[in-house]
Amino acid sequence: MSYRHIKIPETGQKITVENDRLKVSDNPILGFVEGDGIGPDITRAALRVWDAAVEKAYGGKRKVHWAELYLGEKAAGMYDGDYFPAETLDAIKDLIVAIKGPLTTPVGGGFRSLNVSLRQELDLYACVRPLEYFAGVPSPMRHPEEVDCVIFRENTEDVYCGIEYQSGTPENKKLAKFLREEMGCEFFEDAGLGIKPISPFGTKRLVRKAIQYAIDNNRPSVTLVHKGNIMKFTEGAFRNWGYEVAREEFGDQTITEDELWSKYDGKRPEGKVVINDRIADIMFQLMQLRPAEFHVLATMNLNGDYLSDALAAEVGGMGIAPGANMADHIAVFEATHGTAPKYAGQDKVNPSSLMFSGSMMFEYIGWTEVSQLIASAFTKTVADGIVTYDFARQMEGATEVPTSGFADALIERL
Ligand SMILES: NC(=O)C1=CN([C@@H]2O[C@H](COP(=O)(O)OP(=O)(O)OC[C@H]3O[C@@H](n4cnc5c(N)ncnc54)[C@H](OP(=O)(O)O)[C@@H]3O)[C@@H](O)[C@H]2O)C=CC1
Ligand SMILES: O=C(O)CCC(=O)C(=O)O
Ligand SMILES: [Mg+2]
């Protein structure tokens, strides 16, 4: 494939899929997108950490060959104002695994979120965001070590679909007329209108992935999070379809919470994953008061977005909140946070969210030694009191370092 601006390194080999599994050489080509705002600062720092950790783990036997891909403001400057060049999508499909920095989305108008578009275009249907506590990281919780939970957020449906009609437009008036006259709906004049599609297909593939993850990783429960008491046929249906997939496809490996109590007196049988559900509003409180009860959360798009940032606060904040957008094979890793524009170009913010998103990427390609090295060097760096501003402001006597300085300190401790 020939590209206008993207250069695929000739020294590496592309990852392929064989027999439903990734085939990764010792010299894989991985894509990266620098991103907007703080993106360049954190990407620069994280790339150095990843390369150093790979070198440390494999002593030159393995090496990543990076291919820079373009989205957002950098892309617009190169592709005649195109923030979302088609060749970047082609390259991600071709390379299979990539990592991206955050991308800016204008509020209340302008272009649609490039992040959401990317997830939809590549059908990256599961947004996977682990909440893991690392010793020494400052947290507002009394027992942050009790937080150990992975959010599986549906990434392609819900109000993020972009089916919205602006107040005053002909399309809005047409839909409002239909809803009032044909469907008997009542709402205030000139209301903006949005549609919230939640399908059995979209729900089941997400919940299936969450349950499979719980089984593969020996996690005791999967909690379906929803506001199904109010939005019965979207959020309530998500809950019902979630239980259905558990029952029909994982009947031998799962039990419901009702069965846990009615048949097993509250004692989970060895090897069974408990499927339960919680209404979204109480979920925010439960994750603060009794986080140890939750291990995997399966959520729709909006609830998962809100929960991701709220729960990240429990384990250190947006500076340490990694994630992945996953299809069955293609995966694009990215931090949970955005472009934090007030810190853009200041070499100030914490690169750990992106760095740990990279750790997830290395685990995905089977290079687990790299993620283990990064985790232990991170813990040592924080234990030595060397941290970026976000941790420093919550710690006594810490030494605040810039983004690049944190990467230097971590690399020294690999
Ligand atoms: N996947 C993506 O690309 C995402 C993109 N966005 C986009 O990003 C833009 C800004 O969104 P906004 O709501 O401000 O959210 P952000 O996540 O960009 O920033 C909010 C706050 O989180 C803290 N923060 C974020 N990143 C870091 C970091 N690496 N280290 C330390 N602290 C960090 C800062 O807190 P403090 O002020 O306390 O220092 C920052 O002001 C918007 O255009 C939004 O659409 C948002 C989320 C995801
Ligand atoms: O696309 C965006 O700008 C925001 C997306 C977001 O907040 C998220 O995916 O967590
Ligand atoms: Mg978000």
Automatic annotation (TrEMBL):
Isopropylmalate dehydrogenase-like domain ranges (all copies): 29-410
In short, the EC number is 1.1.1.42
Q: How is the cofactor bound?
A: Binds 1 Mg(2+) or Mn(2+) ion per subunit.
Any idea which residues bear N6-succinyllysine here? 100
State the family it belongs to.
Belongs to the isocitrate and isopropylmalate dehydrogenases family.
From the UniProt record, which GO molecular function terms apply?
Answer: isocitrate dehydrogenase (NADP+) activity; magnesium ion binding; NAD binding
Where does the chain bind Mg(2+)?
Answer: 305
List residues binding D-threo-isocitrate. 113, 115, 119, 129, 153
Q: Which residues carry this modification: Phosphoserine?
A: 113
Positions of transmembrane segments: none
Kindly indicate whether the keyword Zinc belongs to this entry: no
Q: Which domain of life is it from?
A: Bacteria
- Where does the record place the site Critical for catalysis? 160, 227
Q: Write out the entry's keywords from A to Z.
A: Glyoxylate bypass, Magnesium, Manganese, Metal-binding, NADP, Oxidoreductase, Tricarboxylic acid cycle
Going by the record, the broad EC class of this enzyme is oxidoreductase
Q: Which GO terms describe its biological process?
A: glyoxylate cycle; tricarboxylic acid cycle
- What's the name of the protein? Isocitrate dehydrogenase [NADP]
Q: Which Pfam families match?
A: Iso_dh
What cofactor requirement does the entry state? Mg(2+); Mn(2+)
